[in-house]
Automatic annotation (TrEMBL):
GO terms for cellular component: cytosol. GO terms for molecular function: catalytic activity; iron-sulfur cluster binding; metal ion binding. It comes from Rhodoplanes roseus. The keyword Iron-sulfur applies. Residues 176-411 form the Radical SAM core domain. The keyword Iron applies. Coiled coil: none annotated. Keywords: Iron, Iron-sulfur, Metal-binding, S-adenosyl-L-methionine. This is B12-binding domain-containing radical SAM protein. PANTHER family: ANAEROBIC MAGNESIUM-PROTOPORPHYRIN IX MONOMETHYL ESTER CYCLASE-RELATED, BLR2995 PROTEIN. Its cofactor is [4Fe-4S] cluster.
Length: 531
């Protein structure tokens, strides 16, 4: 029997899927959006699009991403049940969708990473779906098929038997307004073999990465392309090289797919820094047109890496690893954590020195936040060092004085993202990383006319908003002139919008407009949109 038919009686149901707004934070690239032609969010929510595709046949589904526009009264009225997803950082916005669903007496159902880690945080939802797509999802569909109404008390369904990734449906990309996203999203694997102290991935998604087949991934790419997506596509995998043997099988399929279709996509992914030890993987990534890799470097201090069980970052000296990736045309994006137990008053200076020497342009610098279902949470709880105070920037009672950690964070943000620092790091990438990328002649590339028009509009916005109006335009032109002289318009556009975001985010941090920990669910100034 088809798995989708196993859900129960074939009653047709009307499901409204709603993705909550993100909390305003550095990693959302919000300052970049006004320079684009209508981008409103970073990437489509893969989890909700997979669930939408897994609904039993005949069920009607609508999808709204509230980062793009709010769900309307008419949509809530239309639905029999409202499906919501989300991370801890979106908690208040998740709750708001539940309230609105209940205003119309609609059944509210929550899944995703936040509820999977902390079901107790969401007492108001009618159903909680804990864990990945699996037996809980089938039970949910069967119950809704029998009765879509609100149950008398909350029902919590927990996946014990996860659905094999090879059995995942193609995400329902057709429901999303793809041009409104900065990048597309795709998933190849789930889970990570490491066990970093602060990370909840091993507990939520497992330590043995589960995988899709290369054929499935290329079919998803075909679907993304058919739905009108071109340009950047992000692999949402926790660690792209979690299973190195498998990735060596996937990459040749990606290379062939890209070649056959004229390289419509530019890929990025998240991977551990020890990827630098695998030149054969890096070469294939270059050929498949991977251009950016997010690596959780976390800290340049070796004793700190050891203390947070991230010693795999030390397999290759940090600077050497970054340089190696750059040699394959890969720009590194890095996460940095301040507030670790090993931090000293010198840590901020060391972080800044590392940023300067590695020339990594884009870094998310966060204060440590303890997430539930992590070894860090368990340790701090035992030590009595978890602080539940929404007015603080972190729930961790740091070893160093709180104000000193916060000052160190602000100082790092200010210096790392000063216009001169940001643009000189991009200048380095322009000379030492980008020339190492695959060069495909323009006529051999699949670039729809609409993308050319879009590129020109963004170029105009960059030149006007940054090149003419910004107070740091002098620094911008030092790099922009070189790009123009070399005819590197794509680089000019990318550097223009990203540098703008980094510079403005640094200023937000210094002027207190940005949170120091993007992981918490502290209520945020950003309101939930009214209809
Ligand atoms: C891509 C990604 C992002 C993207 C896009 C997120 C998105 N909406 O797609 C962006 C860049 C926006 C992002 C941002 C952040 N992220 Co993020 N992100 C991820 C990542 C790497 C992949 C997400 C994904 O697509 N997974 C694949 C899908 C298929 O899995 P899934 O979403 O869990 O969905 C499955 C189930 O949960 C379930 N499901 C999901 N939704 C629903 C709904 C219903 C109704 C049902 C029945 C089932 C269901 O079915 C799906 C299939 O199995 C995850 C790690 C991970 N493994 O998930 C981190 C992760 C979700 N992010 C995390 C964090 C901390 C953040 C940030 C705070 C980072 C930062 N420093 O700013 C911000 C927060 C955003 C904000 N400021 O509001 C944490 C969340 C911790 C938590 N438990 O809430 C994670 C788990 C990583 C981690 N441990 O650090 N992130
Ligand atoms: S390597 Fe990354 S995904 Fe894996 S446990 Fe560490 S922080 Fe989490």
């Amino acid at each position: 029997m088809d798995r989708r038919e196993a859900a129960g009686p074939r009653e047709s149901r009307r499901i409204l899927c709603v993705c909550p707004r993100y909390t305003s934070s550095f990693g959302m690239f919000e300052h970049a959006y006004p320079l684009t032609d209508g981008v409103r969010a970073l990437m489509p929510p893969q989890g909700l699009l997979v669930i939408a595709a897994a609904l039993p046949p005949g069920w009607e589904v609508r999808f709204v991403d509230e980062n793009i526009r709010p769900a309307t009264h008419e949509e809530f009225q239309w639905a029999e049940a409202v499906f919501v997803t989300g991370m801890h950082a979106q908690r208040r916005q998740i709750e708001s969708i539940c309230h609105r669903a209940h205003m119309f007496d609609r059944t509210a159902i929550l899944g995703g990473s936040s509820v999977s880690a902390c079901p107790e945080n969401y007492p108001e939802f009618d159903y909680l779906h804990v864990g990945e797509l699996g037996d809980a999802t089938e039970e949910l569909f069967a119950r809704l098929a029998r009765d879509p109404g609100r149950p008398e008390r909350q029902v919590v369904l927990t996946t014990v038997d996860r659905r094999d990734l090879t059995d995942f449906p193609l995400p329902a990309y057709e429901l999303a307004e793809l041009p409104r996203y900065l990048t597309g999203s795709i998933q190849y694997s789930s889970g990570c073999p490491y066990n970093c102290e602060f990370c909840d991935i091993p507990a939520l998604y497992g330590r043995n990465p589960r995988l899709k087949t290369p054929e499935q991934v290329t079919a998803e790419l075909d679907k993304l392309l058919a739905c009108g997506m071109t340009g950047p596509v992000y692999f949402v995998d926790d660690n792209f090289i979690g299973n190195r043997r498998a990735v060596r099988e996937l990459l040749p399929a990606l290379v062939d797919w890209q070649k056959a279709r004229g390289y419509p996509f530019i890929f990025s992914c998240e991977a551990t820094l020890n990827i630098a030890k695998r030149p054969e993987i890096l070469e294939l990534m270059r050929e498949a047109m991977f251009e950016t890799v997010f690596c959780g470097i976390e800290t340049p201090e070796p004793e700190a890496l050891e203390a947070i069980s991230k010693d795999h970052n030390m397999m290759v000296p940090l600077l050497e690893a970054v340089e190696t990736l750059n040699r394959y045309g890969l720009e590194v994006v890095s996460g940095i954590i301040l507030g670790l137990d090993t931090d000293s008053p010198q840590t901020g200076r060391r972080v800044l020195d590392f940023i300067e020497s590695s020339r990594i342009p884009m870094l998310t610098i966060n204060l440590l936040q303890a997430l539930p279902r992590t070894p860090l949470w368990d340790r701090l709880q035992k030590e009595g060092r978890l602080i539940d105070d929404e007015n603080r920037e972190s729930n961790v009672d740091f070893v160093m004085p709180y104000d000193q950690v916060l000052t160190m964070w602000r100082d790092c943000m200010e210096r790392a993202f000063s216009p001169a620092a940001v643009l000189s790091r991009y200048r380095h990438q322009l000379d030492h990383t980008y020339p190492n990328r695959m060069k495909v002649p323009f006529r051999e590339r699949h670039v729809p006319w609409r993308d050319v028009v879009r590129g020109l509009k963004i170029l105009r916005a960059v030149l006007w908003e940054v090149g003419v109006k910004a107070d740091y335009r002098g620094e911008f032109w030092k790099v922009a002139r070189t790009c123009l002289r070399r005819g590197q318009i794509e680089h000019l556009i990318r550097i223009g919008i990203m540098a703008h975001h980094l510079v403005l985010s640094g200023r937000d941090a210094v002027e207190g407009r940005q949170k120091a920990s993007h992981y918490s669910a502290r209520p945020q100034e950003m309101p939930v949109p009214a209809e």
